[in-house]
Amino acid sequence: MATPIISSSSFLRFFMAFFSVFLCLSLCSFENGFALAARDTKPHPLPHTTHTVEVKSLLPATTCSPSTKGHNINKASSVLKVVHKHGPCSNFHKSSKTSTTTCDEKYHAQILKQDQARVNSIHSRLNHNNNKDPLTQSAATTLPAKSGLVIGTGNYIVTVSLGTPAKQLSLAFDTGSDLTWTQCKACSATQSCYKQREPIFNPFLSASYKKISCTTAACTQLSSIGVQHGCSASTSACLYGTRYGDNSFSVGVFGSEKLTLTPTDIFEGFLFGCGLKNKGLFGGSAGMLGLGRSNTSIVEQTANKYNRYFSYCLPSTSCSTGYLSFGKGGRSSNAVKFTALSTVPLGHSFYGLNVVGINVGGTKLPISSSVFSSSRTIIDSGTLITRLPPTAYNALKAAFRQRMKSYPLTQAVSILDTCYNLSSFKTVSYPKISFVFDGGLTQELDATGILYGVSADQVCLAFAGNMDDSEVGIIGNVQQRRLKVVYDVAGGKVGFAPAGCA
Ligand SMILES: *[C@@H]1O[C@H](CO)[C@@H](O)[C@H](O)[C@H]1NC(C)=O
Ligand SMILES: *[C@@H]1O[C@H](CO)[C@@H](O)[C@H](O)[C@H]1NC(C)=O
């Protein structure tokens, strides 16, 4: 059979696969999310190796003052505002009647559990690639039970417009996946949409919507990015099915549309998933914006204009805003220091970096660089907490605890095992942490990129160990906070600059 049909049982399987727990998300006020608003407020005896911040700045924000620090808007690039999906700056923030609700540990444990589901799916996806990718061989009717794409709960949201006339859609952006999709109107008839804030996109009211035929390369190449494809028996339209690591999914018609990033940056024929059955914790966003490395991603589809160059800054709190920018723009900032993208493929979508060491408080940890070279490392916008090979994590933890001896350790929160009870401290001093990359770049993390505050009773080192040293390390989004992160994919490099946003 040349064009496999996605059978109804396969659609059913997508449904059945859905067991996500909404427990905390439905109970919590979103604004009590994981804001970590550390700022250097005072000089400290060892300013070169230590951050000193007020403890209360480490705790989730309850009120917000809008960020005044703007981003550098560059004429030759397209800049979108980035907000945290749980933040008061996002449209998704619930009206603040319930803003005094806190879920503290349960809420954070749930967030961290989702994060672990994403990491598990990244690991299992990379393991599949090491052996043989079952998605490339099988017809589109089965989804390997252990495969599954990266989790759908991206934490950061941008707003783009789709269709003619253009309709605004807020999408979670993800450097770990490639397909861009949004919920499409027909899902409401069958009650197969999750709740989103904006009206659901209606392709039938758009003059520029087209279905992609299932016989095209654009359709069949979906399997190379781990997305199932099939053929509608009645219309020969390309059907897609993508499942994320937390059993979120989107199934629908693969189509093309006019994508409007800014009033001057418009892309005709942008390939996207028009999701007819969607489930998951997408936090009120209308879908996903795939920024991965393979050729269905927005990075590839806009390569003629932006030459595979994009950058972002993830805000440090759920109150502040960052940006996602496409294109190099006029000036490149001198402050950006680059390291090479790994040339050895790591799955299809992921951006690999060559980490060789970690510094804590200005001192290089005693970790053999072979620990990093054998596990490899990716940078991911959608993973929250950085994951390290256990050998590296244990060295980091020991050095961090050594320097934090004057603070009382307290119980772990989910995967975070180095937590301090800071309730009787006004300020806290903790060591600076840097990643050392092959080629000489030492990139210091922002002060907000080291700790994860659940409450004053539990402020934790925001790193975790993998199960074993063979699993890939992941530089997560807490550690990217406030850094300007530049992806020069055509130039084969990724760069960083400090204090890119608030
Ligand atoms: C996308 O990638 C696949 C696999 O590498 C390749 O076969 C296909 O030709 C590419 N398509 C485009 C449009 O570049
Ligand atoms: C944290 O420390 C405070 C003051 O020392 C104490 O009252 C509180 O019970 C501690 N919290 C936990 C969770 O241990």
TrEMBL record:
GO terms for biological process: proteolysis. SUPFAM superfamilies: Acid proteases. PROSITE patterns: PEPTIDASE_A1. Residues 156-497 form the Peptidase A1 domain. Pfam families: TAXi_C, TAXi_N. Residues 1-37 form the signal peptide. GO terms for molecular function: aspartic-type endopeptidase activity. The keyword Membrane does not apply. The active site is at D174, D380. Keywords: Aspartyl protease, Disulfide bond, Hydrolase, Protease, Signal. Belongs to the peptidase A1 family. This is Peptidase A1 domain-containing protein. It comes from Prunus persica.
